[in-house]
Amino acid sequence: MYPVLFHLGPFTFYSFGLMAALALIVPAYFVWRLLRTRGVPGEFCYELIFAAGIGGFAGARIYWIVQHWSEASKDLFNFLVGGFGLTWYGGLIGGFIGVVAWTLIRKQKVGLVANAMGPAVALGYAIGRIGCQLSGDGDYGKPTHSFIGMAYPHGTVPTPPGVEVWPTPIFETLVMVGVFWVLYRMAKKPQPSWYVFGWFLVLSGIERFLIEFLRRNPAWLLGLTAPQALSILSVAIGVGIIVVQRHKPPVEVRLKEERPGSGTRQQRRSKTRAEAKA
C-alpha cells in the first residue's frame, strides 16, 4: 500500500488525492475529443472539469455525512472539510447536478454533453478505484481464502493480521475500463440525446450491484446494501432513457459543418476534387 506518496516540507501528498485529480483530468480529455467536432467550444470542455469536480466532491461528502450522521454530527466541520468520507453515488449525483447546471448556464445541449460524460464518468470511476487500492481505504471486500485474496496491512483502513480479502477496487477498475471502452466507441457515433448516458447508468449499475456481494457494506433493505438499492434505481432509470430515446434522431449536430469553409476533412477533400474537375 502507498497511502502517502511523499512529503514536501510541511505538505503530504496522498495517492488517493493524486488519483482523484487524475479521475477528473484524464476523462476531460476524452470529453474534449467527443465534443470538439460538434460545435462545442473547447474551453467549455475544461470548465466541465471544475463543475464536475466541485459538484462531485460536494455530493460525495454530503451523501457520506447523511449515511453516517451519528458519527459526523459530533464534529461536523471536520467531516465537511477533512480528507475522508466520500461515496461513489453521492459523487455521481453531485457531479451530475454540477455538470447539468453549468451546461444550462453556458447554453449548451445537455443531452449532447450527457452522451460525452457517460464514458468519461466510467473512466473517472476506474481511476478513482486505483486510488482506493493504493491507499487501502477500506473499499476492499470480505475475507476470502481465494488465491487472488489480498491483505491491506498498511492501508489507511488496515486489514487484521493474517486476513486476506477480495481486492474489489482492482475488479472495479478492470470492469469500468471495459465499460468506458464500450461507451466511448458508442459516443463517437451520432446518438440520440442522453442515449449513451442511459447505457452508462445501466452498465455501471449492474457492475456495482454485483460487486456489492463481495464488499463489506451491511445489508440495508431486503438483504441488499444501500448501494445495491441505488444500483437498481440506476439501471431502471437507464433502461427508461434507452427505451424512450433509442428511436429519436441524433443530437450530435456538427455545427462546424454549417459554417462556410468548414466541415469534415473528408468533405473538404471531396469539395477540392470537385472544384478541380470543374
> Structural class given helices, strands, pairing?
mainly alpha
Note poorly predicted spans.
255-264
What percent of the residues sit in helical stretches (DSSP H or I)? 55-70%
**What is the mean predicted local confidence, pLDDT?**
84
Number of strands: 2
Oligomeric organization of the protein chains: single chain
Mind explaining what this structure looks like?
The protein is mainly α and about 280 residues long. It has a domain at about 20-40 and about 110-275. The chain has helices spanning about 15-35, 40-65, 70, 75-80, 90-105, 110-135, 170-185, 195-210, 225-245, 265-275; strands at about 5-10, 10-15. Strands 1-2 form a two-stranded antiparallel ribbon. The radius of gyration is 21 Å and the shape is globular. Residues about 255-265 have low confidence and may be disordered.
Please give a quick description of this structure.
It is built from 10 helices and 2 strands; from the N terminus they run E-E-H-H-H-H-H-H-H-H-H-H. By secondary structure, the chain is mainly alpha-helical.
